[in-house]
Amino acid sequence: MKLIGSAASPYVRKVRVVMAEKRLDYQFAIEDVWSADTAIASSNPLGKVPCLVMEGGEAMFDSRVIVEYLDTMSPVGKLIPQQSRERAEVKTWEALADGVMDAGVLLRLEATWAHRAEGERSQAWMDRQRGKVVAGIAAMAKGLGDKPFCSGIHLSLSDISVGCALGWIEFRFPEIDWRGQYANLAKLQDKLMLRPSFAETKP
Ligand code: GSF
Q1: CA 127, 128, 130, 135 torsion: positive or negative?
Q2: Whose alpha carbon is nearest atom 13 of ligand 1?
């Protein structure tokens, strides 16, 4: 399998962490989707990473589809429960973490995308997206409470998704002091960073 992605993307990191936790082999193909000569559209018509290209050449996206597929590929370290209620809970954690990243990406693009002139940037839009990031992180802290992991008593896709979102927010928006505000999230993140899957994929 070939994973097309970039080292800074939190969605790509989620897939890489899952690959490592599941002990799956893959080739990592770095692609800058923002460069004028990117070839990403030949694999993903949406022009986004991560994109997983299978042995036969078929491509799979997006990160939620890829990680769900990877979890079925090996019995090692199940990350998504089978039972429907528990499964939906984990997928909701993933949606929350992805939603924080989505809002953060929109905020960052509005503030920095080179093809948008200064006068075209909307402060109201940036405030709206920042509000989602901040509210999403608050919901993570509330949902985690004093539990050791987000769902159940073992590592799951919930923790991986939250860890990738928090790591990326820390990387791109250091002024959002979630560590200072939420000791439980800081503790979880520090624990995740002890795992090679996280330590080796830090943006
Ligand atoms: C989001 C992927 C995405 O926005 C997923 O895979 O979970 N829901 C999708 N990827 C960004 C890179 S990044 O911001 O991490 C991307 O490829 N953007 C290119 C574009 O043209 O929007």
Answers
A1: positive
A2: 9
pLDDT tens-digit profile of 141-184?
Answer: 999 999 999 998 999 999 999 999 999 999 999 999 999 999 99
Q: In the chain, which segments carry CATH 3.40.30.10?
A: 2-71
Query: Which residue, 98, 101, 94, is CA-closest to 172?
Result: 101
CATH 1.20.1050.10 fits 84-199, yes or no: yes
For 8, 34, 68, 73, 132, the CA distances from 136, given in Å and listed in that order, are 21, 27, 22, 31, 6
- CATH number of the domain at 2-71, out of 3.40.30.10, 3.30.565.10, 3.40.50.1820, 3.40.710.10? 3.40.30.10
Closest residue by CA, ligand 1 atom 22? 48
What's the predicted TM-score (pTM) here?
0.98
Ligand 1: nearest atom to the Cα of 12: 15
CA of 180 from ligand 1 middle (Å) equals: 28
Assign 135 a pLDDT band (cuts: 50, 70, 90): very high
